[in-house]
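PROTEIN DESIGN WORKSHEET
SECTION A - STRUCTURE
LENGTH: 236
TOKENS:
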């Protein structure tokens, strides 16, 4: 696939013509576990009807906050549980996953970033080290805490720091960023947000990333413990 057209739309709104991958953008924090099966059934019907890949709303399953990707046949081809939780969710005692798990699709190797995981650099880096070429994020942000730069730079940092394509829905808006950090569709609350990218284009040099991490690990005691010239410590 040379070009992938991604659209971020309100939940269940018809996708723009030409969209191949749709991410639902919703104002609620998540779909409760009691309603999750009904939501996923509606999402599967949507994917089949519009012949698109679909990332539906965030939902609770087995006491985890989850996100999934459906095929145009309405089948779940990948899912991810949140590695980190929004502070507003911690009072519910939801469980957290211990790793990000990218999966192979016809769109490339995809990683799903659930809610605040898009703002955690270590999660995006782990996804890319595991081979991800496309990061898809869906996040809930309270209206009083929703501002453009928070969403923009979360997505841009994930893309440019890891050389990977990113599409992110947040609140009632979205942004699509190319692997070099260029905003193909800048953050907007005027949905749909839509852009085309080359899913095979990825700047991430995983060998270099791994070598750099090994180098930092090997020399961390020197960097962290050696007294600085002024007599202090150099913290890393």
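SECTION B - SEQUENCE
RESIDUE ASSIGNMENT:
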């Amino acid at each position: 696939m040379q070009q992938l057209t991604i659209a971020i739309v309100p939940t269940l709104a018809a996708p723009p013509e030409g969209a191949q991958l749709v991410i639902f953008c919703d104002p609620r924090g998540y779909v409760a576990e009691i309603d999750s099966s009904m939501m996923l059934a509606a999402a599967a019907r949507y994917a089949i009807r519009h012949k698109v890949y679909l990332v539906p709303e965030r939902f609770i399953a087995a006491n985890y906050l989850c996100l999934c990707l459906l095929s145009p046949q309405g089948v779940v081809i990948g899912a991810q549980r949140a590695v980190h939780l929004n502070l507003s969710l911690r009072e519910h005692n939801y469980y957290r996953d211990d790793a990000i798990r990218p999966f192979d699709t016809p769109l490339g190797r995809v990683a799903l970033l659930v809610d605040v995981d898009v703002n955690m650099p270590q999660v995006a880096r782990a996804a890319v080290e595991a081979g991800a070429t496309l990061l898809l994020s869906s996040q809930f942000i309270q209206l009083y805490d929703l501002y453009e730069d928070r969403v923009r730079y979360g997505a841009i940092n994930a893309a440019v720091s890891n050389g990977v394509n990113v599409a992110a829905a947040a609140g009632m808006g979205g942004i699509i960023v190319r692997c070099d950090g260029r905003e193909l569709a800048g953050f907007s609350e005027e949905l749909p947000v839509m852009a085309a990218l080359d899913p095979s284009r990825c700047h991430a040099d995983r060998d270099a990333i791994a070598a750099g991490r090994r180098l930092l690990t090997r020399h961390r005691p020197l960097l962290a413990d050696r007294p600085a010239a002024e007599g202090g410590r150099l913290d890393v």
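SECTION C - NOTES
The radius of gyration is 19 Å.
Residues 23 and 55 are 5 Å apart (CA to CA).
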